[in-house]
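re: the backbone from monday

yeah here it is again, tokenized this time
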């Protein structure tokens, strides 16, 4: 049985990361840049939303740890 070396990491990481899915928009001779950028934005959007809502607590925690005394 021949296993292509890059198939195994994609299958293993498919349940944990979105970057292997984004890389599927790249072909051998052409790249669908519009779809790749849309998938990239959709994969980063939840992280940015979480940061926006938790930014106040992150800054408070850093300032509380930075105060000397």
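seq for it, each position gets an aa:
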């Amino acid at each position: 049985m021949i296993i292509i070396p890059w198939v195994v990491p994609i299958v293993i990481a498919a349940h944990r990361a979105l970057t292997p899915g984004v890389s599927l928009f790249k072909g051998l001779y052409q790249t669908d840049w519009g779809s790749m950028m849309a998938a990239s934005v959709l994969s980063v959007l939840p992280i940015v939303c979480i940061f926006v809502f938790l930014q106040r607590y992150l800054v408070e925690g850093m300032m509380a740890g930075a105060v000397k005394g």
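The chain has a mean pLDDT of 76. The first helix runs from residue 7 to 13.
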